[in-house]
Each structure stands twice: as C-alpha cells, then as structure tokens.
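=== Structural record ===
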Amino acid sequence: MWRQCSPRESIAEERKAPGFPIRELTYWIDGGKKATELKESIMLELERDPLWRVNDNPNLTLAETRERAMKKIRRLADQAMSHPLENTMVRMSIISVVDPGFWTRFGVHFGLFVGALQGQATPAQLAYWMEKGALSMQGITGCFGMTELGHGSNVAGLETTATFDAATDEFVVHSPTLTSTKWWIGGAAHTATHCSVYAQLVVDGRRYGTKTFVVQLRDTKTFELMPGVNIGDLGKKMGRDQIDNGWIRFTYVRIPRSHMLMKHTKVLRSGKVIEPPLAQLAYGALIQGRVSMVSDSANVAKRALTIATRYASVRRQFGDGAIETKLLDYPIHQHRLLPLVAQTFAMIFAAREMTSSYRQLMSELGKLGDATGAKADEAIKNLKETHATSAGLKAFCTWMCLNIIDQCRQSLGGHGYSAYTGLAQAYSDFAVHCTWEGDNTILTLQCGRYLVATALDARKGQPLPANLKYLSRAMAQNGATKTTEPCTGSTAEEVSELRVLEAAWGSVAANAILSAVRAFETGQAKGMSKDNAYEFSSAARLHAARMHSYTYLLQRFVTQVERSPAALRPVLTLLARLFGAHSAVQHSGEFLQSGFYSGSQIEALKTFVNSACTEVRKDAIPLTDAFGYTDYVINSPLGRYDGDVYEKYFDLVTSLNPQKPVPYFDSLIRPLLERTNESELGPELEIDQEE
C-alpha cells in the first residue's frame, strides 16, 4: 500500500528551488513591473466584486447567463470612460480569460462598432457619433453587421445593398435574398440600437463594392424595432452564451447619406462617387481584431497550462516506491505538456511583436492622409505585410491554442470532462476563434498568397521584408532555388542550437514557399488565370503559410531571448530551443526534404527534445506561476496555487449541486421500476434439478 502525500506538500516542493527569478519573468511577460502591478490590482478588484462571480457559471441557464452579462455592461462602460485607455486594455485582456463570453458582448460595441467608426468615419462623422453617445454607450449600443447567412469570409460577395436615392439624399438599405440576412451578429438579438452594416454601395445602378453604413435598429427610447428592420435570436451556441447573437433583415430601410462612413470612399449630394487613391487603406481597421486574437491565444493558453501543470504536480498514480509517482514525473506526461509551455511562450512574444507592428502601422497610416508617392507606397507595402502576417498568425495561434486547451483537458483524465474544472468550457468558448474574424483556412491561404507574390517580386529585384529575409538565402539571382546548406552538427547540442534551428526553419519555410511558387506557375503554364492559378496552388500555399508561421514565431522568440534580462536568458533559451526542436521533430519530413537535416540529425533532435523536457520539468511550476494568474482567474479547483485540489473540487461540486429529491422520481422512475407485464408472470425458473 502506498503512503499518502498531501497535494499541498507535493506542489510546495516544486517551488523550493526555482532555476530563475519567477517575479522577474512575470515582469518580462507582462511588459514590466508597472504592468504586472496594474494587472494584479485589476484581478483583485474583479475577484472582490460580487458582480464578477464566475465559479457557478456552469449551472446558469441561457437566460441567466445573458442577464448576468448585461449587469456587468454598465459597470464596465463607466470604468472605460473614467480610466486611462491602458487600464481598460489590461482589464479587457484579463476579462477575456475570466469571462470570454462577456468580453465578446462588451467588445462587440467597443471593439467592433466603435472600431468601425474610428477606422471608417471622417473626423466630422466620428465626432458626431461620439457626441451621440457611441463611445460612452449612452443612448447608443452598437453591433457589427458584416457576416451574412450566405457569406462570411468573402466580404466582397456580401449581398446586402445600400442604394443611393438622389431625390431624398438617402441610402436605401435592403436584404434582397434570404442569404443576405445578417447572421451571427453579436448584440443584435437583445441589445443593439445601431449597427455598422457592411453593404454593397449602389449609385445610379453601378456597384462600387462593400462599404460601411450606420443603420439604426431600434428606437432608443421605446426599444421598438425601426420600420423595415426585422431581428431574431440565434439562441444556444457551442459557447459564449453571454453574447446575444442574432439575425437582421432590412426591407428598404432609409438612412441619411451622412450615415455612410466616408473616411475613404465618399458619395456627394449630387451622387458623384469619389474613391480613395489608396483603396487598400480601408482594410487597415480590420487587422486589429486579428492582432488581438494572437494575444488572446497566448493568454488563454497560459490559463490552460497552469491548470494542467499544477494538477500534474499533485496527482499521483502507480509507481514502484513508497509513494505513488506524480504525473509530472512521467516522461510521457512531460512530453505531453512541456512543449506546449514552450509554444505558449512563443505565442506571448509573437503577440508582443505583432501588436507593436500594428500600432506602428496605424500611426503611419494616420499621418498619411490622402498623400501619394513614395511614402504612400511604403505604407501600402507595410499594410500588405501586416495584413498577411496577422492573417497567418491569427489562424496559426488560435489553432495552436485550441489544441493546447484540449491537450490540457485530456491530461486531467476523467476530471477534464467536468464543467467545474475549467477546460471543457474553455474549449467550447475558444473554438469560435478559429472561424470568426476570418475562417482560419481562408486567412492562412491569404498569407500564403502574399508569400508567393512576395517571392515573385523578389525575383524581379524587389527587397524582401525583414521577416522573409530567409528567402534570399534560398533564391539565386535568376530566381532558381539554391541548394540548401545542410546542418553540419551531429550531436543533440549542435543540431539544436538556436542559430541552427533558425536556419533550419528558414530553410523549410523557403522550400515550402518556393514549392508554392512552382505550383502557381504550373497553373499559369496550363493557361489558368492568375486567380485560378492561385487556387490551383492552394494546398501548397496553405502549407507554406504554416511553415512561415512556425519560422516567424521562432524568430520572435529568439529576438525576445536576446533582449531578455541575463537572469532569464538561460530558461528562455531552453524554451526557445524546445519550441524549435519539438516543432521540427513533428514536421521532420519537411527538414529531410529541404536537405537541412539528415535522418541521424533528426534522431539527435529527438534526443535533445527528451533532455529538454527533463530540464524544463524542473521548473514547470515556477514557469506557469510566472504567468501571474490568481486562483480567481484560473477558476479551477484543479489549478489552485496551493495544490489543495481534491478538497476544493469536492466542495465546489457539492455546494453547487446540493442533495435534493429527484423531481421526476414519481412521474418516471417509480413507474419504470414498478411496472408489470402479465406475460412475464409464470412459474419460477428451477435451477436445481433432482434426479
């Protein structure tokens, strides 16, 4: 019989001798001591506010879930107006982990509706809508009307129309078909008074593409639907039930001409349409959501891994000693979780760089105005790069995070299936990230198209952007593929050095991109149009974008290692090497095909992964502690800081599910047990036969 060991003691021993300063790593992850202290103050504030109770969420009905979310709206709206923007952004990043459904409901107004105004309205229009209460949510609650029943990723194909009526100086917004019904519109079912509607601009019978219009949905006093507006509730979903998604149909709804957002395309009183010299600038505002989801992927993954790693440090089973073995001490469990820790650090640092690039881009675009020339050309080039990179990373990181959540859930064994342990709902809530703000496959293909186009431009002498410099090493002056310079190392240490892994991933990504280029050119050689040739090469483009995303994450990881404090550099270097090497082993065929690694070198990489998991295991709990989430944010009895998982799990389940009489015993169970059937009556079966 094994001797029992206290879960509290089990996790405490994990913290006795961390290999790095935990607090310093928290500061590095958060962006500094001040940022960490702000985060901690907000977490404490939420924890102490009864309005923000979250541990009973699994037991709420759909109606109760939505009502509780709505109670939080005013509180947060007032805070958003009275606190600095930095404070609000940090608060929302925490809420995205604590209550992702509410985060969506609140974000639909402030992120999407207000974001559409900020990105698409002229200064005068923006001032008008702000004065009407759009920013403060006083008099206006907004939603974002892009997706339709029949169209999602293909924004250019949206069917809703906004036709200019010169006689009345109005637009007539109309849903001409069933498939043009606006669908999945967050906030539409119960909350929104106005909607930023994406519709086809039609003037004098000519279509000018999809533009943005502000349409009032409900009377702000009576809350009755406006004439011509029909709205319905989409009901229960896989997750995020806090948001009241709905459908909207417009039947010849008239709005003033000034309600078309005209920062870019303008329609004059005469009906003259003035299109911008740089039409691509209109897409800058759409990047923000994708960038935020890269950060959200990292944040949600941090919570999932904190739960799984802490549980693995206290859960014991089997073993040949006096005490059962911790899950975390089994090599297979280390391989199960610790490469995911490395992936999460890679996402953290990629999100940091992506956010910085986006802010810099938007600053450049803001200064550009209607200017043309060299500066405008450079801005458009940066916009295309950021658009493609954000598309690829949004897809890559949300897929990666969803896998991390599920792997962590499965690592909890049967307890992972419980709604009270935190990861089942996390999976359901996060899954939508893979399809909204652009379907992941479509976004990955967009990134792949950019990579092919950039490689073709490089052949013509165009300079490569910084994150694609690895292509220059793979392309000769005439555009032909150079022979890859293979890895010369042979030991586990040599083949897994960071500089070697960077070169390895650059080689694989370049090989994949140039393979996509060849597929594209094959399509053209067969007489296909440019667009059809891109479709012909879609599988190769998808693969190229995925390989590029791995390379981008490793590049960003290495950059952050180089910038990190000396005390953190050893552990971050180890994690970066684990990320690069484990990912390479998972895609070993690509490295063999590119010629960078040989079969024996791949085996050496596997040896390094084994040893790296053993090393990272020593600091598994300190690393997840450094993520800096309180027990309130973790919201799982299995992920408690003090390790007291069984007592708290039992207490939570029994407190939320008290013993009660079975409500359907008399109506269903008793009749089942006491039912009789005359055909069943008869002599008892004799089993003892006498001779």
